[in-house]
Amino acid sequence: MSIDGSGGKLWGVYEGLCLARKIGLVAMEVNIDSQAVMDSLSGSKTCCVVGCRLINSIRSMINTNWQVVFKHSY
Question: Which intervals hold domain RNase H type-1 (predicted)?
Fold first, then answer.
């Protein structure tokens, strides 16, 4: 996964989740147009060195008392 492609989308997911937490949302649907990002976040693929820390941060954020649904949009 390159930081230019999917890495940028991961940053978007991370920043969006940070904002959602800041404003107090407890349930949300996140639409992602990248199958590689979906696979990374669902845990079906191991993360690469570049995005591993970011993926782990996102995974730990969604493993709290949130209701987060990721959907792949085309």
Answer: 8-73
CB 26 within 8 A of CB 66: yes
* Cβ contacts of 37-40, under 8 Å, gap ≥ 24: 37/6, 37/9, 37/10, 37/13, 38/70, 38/72, 40/1, 40/6, 40/10
- For residue 65, give Cα distances in angstroms to 1, 20, 55: 29, 13, 18
| Pairwise CA distance, residues 32 & 34, whole Å | 6
* Phi, then psi, of 60 in degrees rounded to 5: -70, -30
Q: Calculate the alpha carbon distances from 21 to 24, 25, 28, 56, 67 in Å.
A: 5, 6, 10, 17, 12
Which pTM value belongs to this model?
Answer: 0.80
pLDDT one-digit tens code per residue, 48-67? 656 788 888 998 988 888 89
